[in-house]
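=== RUN LOG ===
request id: a7f3
mode: sequence -> structure
chains: 1
length: 188
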Amino acid sequence: MGSELHAWCDESLNTDSANPFYVFAAYLAEPDQVDEQRDAIRSLEPRPGVRFHWREAKRHERTRATEIIATLACAHIVAIAAPMDPRKQERSRHHCLKTLFAEMAAWDVTRVTLESRAAQDKNDQTFIRQLRSAHLVPKTMTVRHDRPKEEPLLWVPDIVAGATRADQLGDRTYFAAIEPMVTILNAP
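=== RESULT ===
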């Protein structure tokens, strides 16, 4: 990958099994590549103007999504917090974010876009300020929130997080296509 990298991040979690866990994925790409990649990702719209969302996608749509991502010039970092206390999901989310931001700093990511959770965005900004104070988020890294309806590149980490979640639950169908592009990290 080149000298400048941007990242888009989204999450998935599993509370349905005996081993609950939290997954946070970051999709890293060079800014000069993203317009072409955005066009490829938009081809996943179930209907014009409707975003792709892993949770709502059918099996064949998920397969197609991971196949498209496998063709992109990009990398992915995935932080997994396991086991997760289902009553303390936000704590697991913070462990994943801390792990992801430390790794993105090591990759010299200059801009991060998190999927907006509306009212929760303020909590994210507070946590990111704490990470900056601890020198885990460099001053050169900008962090913002956006909605997937406006930014289709947020669909990529949604897909990667969903495929990783499926893999952790024993279904390698989707993750196998993107595995060479993914770095998995344990979020302690």
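=== NOTES ===
The chain has one domain: 5-186.
The mean pLDDT is 93.
=== END ===
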